[in-house]
Amino acid sequence: MAAGVVFLVGFLQIEVMNKNIFSIICFCMILITGCAQSASRKVVNEQVPEAKEDLIVIGFSQVGAESDWRKENSESMRSTFTRDKGYELIFEDAQQKQQNQITAIRTFIQREVDYIVLAPVTEDGWDTVLGEAKDAGIPVIIVDRMVNVDDDSLFTCWVGSDFKLESRKACAWLKSYLERQHMDPGDVNIVDIQGTIGSSAQIGRTTGLRDAVIENGWRLLDAVPGEYTQAKGREAAARMLEKYDNINVVYCENDNEAFGAIEALEAAGKKAGGNIRGGEVLVMSFDGVSRQALENLRNGSISCIGECNPLHGPRVKKIIENLEAGQTPDKYEYVEEDVFSGYERITEVTVDGTSYPVKIMGK
Ligand code: AHR
């Protein structure tokens, strides 16, 4: 009997101990499972993007950062397409290479952006990649320079400058100025520092000058690419100053090239200015966006600038708003632009019967 009681007590103790062990095991398992669950929840949370903001995603392929104009243009896009205004801007700088732009567009297509905005470096060579964007159903807005494609349904619309008109207005200013200086057209010896060859800005500005040279009987001594940069502008001007000793007009296809040309003139012992008869070399250019350009107009080292307006961000935004509202924007939208000069006596220029005011930058 006593032995039976001892056995029973022993059995119950083991039983109680087992239960405790069982309870401990259960508790540990719950703990482990709980931890594991919360760990796996964490991983899942990290993989799933946060509640999707309702942003319009724009892939923007920018040419590069070659000039003051381009920097202003990039800033205009960046400050327009911000998250607080409902946009996500994917900005790709192509460093002046078309291949980089083509790669960027393909990446935008893969990422299924809502819109592609392209500032093309040159006009040709876009048919294939724009065809891919069209097949993917992504609207393409071309900005600043144009594309030259067989089928214009490959892009939704374009907004930018009339580069040839800019040139024609600047050349009308030059004609008027030279007449006031009583210059014989045959004594006007011009060199052209061109922009990026094959870009709309270069094509329009080079063509505008060539037409004016023929029309007015001026002499175009040479045309050399300056790629829209100050360094290349200086190099190009220096080379031409070595080659020709009779240059009296340097036509630069943007302001940065003009800054370089002025440096080259100074290095060659010449002065940039409007007193051609007194031996100065007249410098003219395009853009008019930087403080330095304004300062050069005021001090006379640049005589005339054909404005090129870089503030395309709000224009592209308006186009996107129209498209979002189901409207069809104009296929081509030209920006209105002025002519700037520090010379007070020419207050307007006329092209094809239309008069355009010249904005005088006071001393
Ligand atoms: O396409 C616009 C031109 O490109 C600007 O005149 C020039 O400065 C820029 O780099």
Brief synopsis:
This protein has 363 residues and is an alpha/beta fold. It has helices at 2-47, 68-80, 98-110, 127-135, 163-180, 200-216, 230-243, 255-267, 291-299, 313-324, and strands spanning 56-62, 87-93, 115-118, 140-143, 157-160, 189-194, 219-225, 249-252, 282-287, 304-307, 332-334, 339-341, 348-351, 354-360.
Label this structure with key terms.
single chain, about 375 residues, alpha/beta, Rossmann fold, 2 domains, 8-stranded mixed beta sheet, 6-stranded parallel beta sheet, 10 helices, about 45% helix, disordered N terminus
Describe the structure.
The chain has 363 residues and is α/β, with parallel strands linked by helices. It has 2 domains: 130 residues, 3-Layer(aba) Sandwich (Rossmann fold), CATH 3.40.50.2300; 170 residues, 3-Layer(aba) Sandwich (Rossmann fold). 45% of the residues lie in helices and 19% in strands. The chain has 10 helices and 14 strands. It has an 8-stranded mixed β-sheet with strand order 7-6-8-9-10-12-14-13, with helices on both faces. α4 links the parallel β3 and β4. α2 runs parallel beside α10 and α5 packs parallel to α6. It is elongated, with a radius of gyration of 33 Å. The N terminus is likely disordered. Alpha-L-arabinofuranose (AHR) binds next to α2 and β9.
